[in-house]
Structures are given as C-alpha cells and as structure tokens.
Amino acid sequence: MSEAVTETESPDGGSSKQEKSLRYRELSEAWRKIMAAMTACSIILAVNQIFNLGFFVGYVVLDSRYMYMITGVMLCMVFITFPANKHSPTHVPWYDIGIMVVIAIIFSYYAYFAERIVLEAWEYAAPQIGVWLALVTWVIVLEAGRRAGGWPVFAIVLVFSLYPTFAASLPNVVAALSIPIQEVAIFHILGEESLFGIPMRVFAQLVFGFLVFGISLQFTGGGPFFINLAFALLGHLRGGPAKVSIFSSGLMGSMSGGPISNVLTTGPLSIPAMRRIGFSKEYASGVEACASTGGVFMPPIMGATAFVMASFLNVSYVTVAVAAIVPSVLYFFGLFMQIDAYAARHNLQGLPKDELPKVGKVFREGWYFIAVFIALIWMLVYLQREAVAPFYATGLLLVINQFTVHKLSFDRFMQLVAQMGKLLAELAGILAAIGLIIGGLAVTGIAGTIANDLVYLAGENVVILLVMGALTSFILGIGMTVTAAYIFLAIVLVPALTNSGLDPLASHMFVMYWGMLSFITPPVALAAFAAASVANVSPMRAGVEAMRLGAIIYFVPFFFVFNPALLLQASWGENLQAITTALIGVALVSAALQGYLIGLGDLGGGSRGILVRVLIGISGLSLALPAGGLFGFSQTFLVVVTLIFLGAGIGIRQVFSLNSKSGSKLEVPPD
Questions:
Q1: Please, which of 132, 458, 660, 670 could form a disulfide with 464 given CB 3.0 to 4.6 Å?
Q2: Which residue ranges traverse the bilayer (predicted)?
Q3: Digit-coded pLDDT (tens) for 276-300
Q4: Gap between the Cα atoms of 483 and 489, Å rounded
Q5: d(CA 130, CA 228)
Q6: Whole-prediction pTM value?
C-alpha cells in the first residue's frame, strides 16, 4: 500500500472474469463497435430530449416517440450483451440478429405512428396490425427481462403480465374480471401504464444521466481516488482496512447502485488488506458485503431506486435523498462501531502509516472528483435540475480529467462506452419487463384490493402488517434486483401500509430497505456470496457473518416507520433528538453484537457474557426507538428503560469481573 492505487481490479464496474463468462458475451471487435454506436445513439436521444435541443433544427420529438426510439435501441443492446444460453458466450447467433431486426422494424413502426397511437387511443382499440405487433413485442420484452434479470424476473413478470387473462378463474381474494389476451397486449405495449410506465419513464428521463455519470466517475479514476482517500484517512486506525471498506464501498455503491458489482470492484483490494492485519476470511467477506450493500441507499446517487420512488411519491428526488441520509448514517455508523469493537477485542491494529497513501498527495491528484460531486449536489439541491445535473457533472468531469494523470486514452474511452452500454442494456431489459407487472395490476385494478386484504389479514394491527411487509419484501428481494423488488412492492404493499395511517415516504423507504436485505441474509445472500468468492471462503459462513454485521439494518426501517423524525420529516428539535438517541442506541447495539463496549472493555464470554450482551443490546434498542410516533413512548420513559438495562448489564459484568479477579488471587499455587 506504499503507492496509491491507480486502478481497481475491475474498473468496468466490478464484474469478475467468472461473472462475465456467465452473464455477458465476449464480443468481437465488430460487435463492440456496433454496441458503442448504439450506446452513443441512446445518449444522443436522451440528451436531445432531456435538454429539449430539437436536434438543433427545431424538431421536437413527442415523448412517446422518444420512448419508442430509445427503448428499441436498448432492447437491441440487450440481445447483443446477454447470451440466450451457454452455447453463445462469444458470438451473436443468427436468431439474436433476427430478434434485433424484428425489434428495429416494430419500434420504428411505433415511432412513425406515435401521434396516431396517442390520438386514436390504440391502448384500448388498436388496428389488427397493432395487436399482432404488441403480442410479438410482449414476448420480446419477456425474453429481454429473462436475459438481463434471470429466470426469477422472467417467472414473476410472466405470471403478473398474463394475470388479466385468467383473473376470473382465481379465488375471490385475488380475482378480477378476465380480459382477452389481445386487449391485454395492446394495453401493455401501446399504453402509458405498463411497458412505458413509471420504471421506463424514470429510467429514460432521469436515471439515464446518473448512470452515465457513475460509469464516467469510475473510468476517470474515481474508484481508486475514493479507495486511496479511505486508506489515507482510516488505514492506520485499529481495524483500519475494514473501516476503509466501509468508506470506499459505501461511496462506490452509491455510484454503481449494485451491491454485487461493488463487492467485485473494491473487494479485491479491501479483503486482502483486512486479512493482512488479522481479520478472518468470513469477517472480511461480511464487512465488504455489508458496506457494498449499504451503498445502494447512500445519497447522493442511490442507484435507480430513489428516482423511481420519487416518481411514485410525486416528490423531487432531493426529498428522497435527504430522507435517506439519517438511515444510511445509522447503518454505516453501526458497521463502523462493530468493526471498532471487534478490532479492540481482538487487538487488531491498523496498517503502518509509511505504507499508506498521503492525504495531501491523494487530494492533489483527485481534488476534482470532490469538486464535481459538490457541483452535482449544488445543481440537485439548489437549482432543482435533476434531469440535466448529471450530464453537466459528467461533462465537467471529462473535461477536467483530460488535464490530469488519469487522462482517458481512446482505448480506455471505448472501454467506458462498452461498460456504459452493458449497464444501460441490463437496466433497460429489467425495467421494461418489470413495467409489465404494473400493467397487469393496473388494468385489473387488483392492487387496491390486495392492499385492503392485507390490512384485513393483519387485523388492522400496524405492527403485524409491518412484519408481514418485511417478510414479503425480503422474499421478493431474493433473486431480484433492488429496483425490481421495490417497484413490485410499491404497487402491492405500500398502499396497505399507507391505508393503515403510516407516512407514505416512510412506507416506501421501508419496503426498499427490506427488499435489499436479501443481499446480506442467507440462504441467498448474493453480495456475501460474491465477497466469499473473493476471499475464498464458504459462502454460507460469509453470509452468516454479513447478517450479524448488518444486524442494525433489520431494526432501522421499523424505527423510521414508527417515527419519521429519522427521515427528517419532523421539526428540527424532534429530528435532532431522534438522531442523537438513535446514534447512541446503535453504538450500544453494536457493542452488544461484538462483545466489547468502549470504556468498559470485553463483555465476557459464556452464558454470563451472553446475558450482559442481551441487556446492553436491549438498552440500545430502547434508546434508538424514536419517542412519540406509533407507540407514543415518551423520551423520558425510553431513557429510563435504557438506563435500567444498561446499568444491569454493566453491573453484572463488573461483579463477574471482580469475582474472577478475586478468585485468581485466592488460587493456591502448586507445591
């Protein structure tokens, strides 16, 4: 570590060679050029529409025509990027070329007749050719979802998109009027509530620019800069490399929005460094998995999910990002305190300072990354220019970068474009398919019925409803992306929570958090499994360690639902009180989980140590629980409960400590 990191192991977003061989095609030079051209075409279309440039000739594209054009291009990119099976990992077979030709013809037809489709309401009464084209498009979108998102996405989308055709045959609780498949097809494809509903609209109009910014940041040296900065600031502290992982993986995760790709980007650097100072392989894997997963809900970027949430809530993205600040701080603070306690308990020191990058040198070489971030936040918060801000930030970044040591060569720029194309294709394929779920529920009106049924099943008990919602969110999060799981839950589950009187923003954040938890929770802890592959350790053991390290995140969603002060939705005084008590409470819970309390030391082992940990853990949860809100506990009551349990835990620990010392003094040495 004596030299600053100049490249990450996987600057293209973190996919390992194994992952690439399984998911992405290794394209020939010709197909790479075609992908680059399609990526450039997508960016030009997006920039033209978002900035309202009129192609510089005054021709303003109808929104629906723009959606047809950019979706058609990106669906073609899906069939270039993702093979149908393991038999075509290095070449684009004839049938994929055929599918792309069909996509080009169909979406060109849609774009040409965009005005007629809107004015004549083809989503309800299309001509026969429109019906047939819609049926073909439906099948193509399903296959694109399978390739980009896997079989779980395909199966769920297939069932819910076909649901209107057999709804009348289901039990009464989920029954609805059946609709002929032709009418379902034109509603899905030619309307504005299914394929071109919230997911794809948000993607094409808002998320697009942030994805471009995130990839550009990585390829211009942003990843190495944040890793170097983390090592320079935290590497010398006890447990330093693990604390570095929190800082660097959190920032990288905020850019990429993908826990797995983030693990595979920063893990090859942070995990060996953790192992070097004494962390076990399991613990190092768990730290990396938790830090990378937490980046998904860390402002300012937060992946695609925050933008979709803002659209559902009809609020600005800044509102969602601000609300996510305190929960993300609590999560990363909990990780930091657990790592510190673990390092103190096991006497794990940091790395020698002479082996670490110098803070001054790191800042001199990468100051412009921070400057660009500040500019982005300024445009988002003060100018309220959410759609155009990331494009300006990307342009500023690329211009400044060309005058630095990280200057992009032509080959490196083409790698940037290629990775950008992969990411756009992946998200477009998934979000296009997920849109069909919204359409299936919207055309039947079943979403409201399910919400009322959930409230009825919970007996109007909000706590039971939240537990049901948490379990549902967790199960759906298994095998699905965070964004895909969130969109489904926002339609089906959130209305039930809001109908029970819960805050809408808190309800949306609740299902997003719980949908994400599957990445660190066995049996399918995908982020932990990715970290385990880097550390060469049992995936399940890494998953168990990640679940224990990320334990605080299982409680945080309940806290901010009970009292939205933790989402900064109350007065300044209430917000400050809730944050202060939550931070202290999280520190106590972290100490209980790791068996070490600052100022007191090791909490002991055996049954007595477990009792002390339980008491201190309960005290922390009591203090972290916001006053008022759903339960109506006063702050005084919670503080008293905290002091009782904390005092009992410390008292028992001290008594056993004194007894053990006196017992050792009374021990008679052998003759």
A1: 458
A2: 34-60, 66-82, 94-112, 124-142, 149-167, 202-226, 286-309, 315-336, 366-383, 389-406, 427-448, 454-476, 483-502, 514-537, 549-572, 578-598, 610-631, 637-656
A3: 888 899 999 999 999 888 877 788 7
A4: 10
A5: 55
A6: 0.81
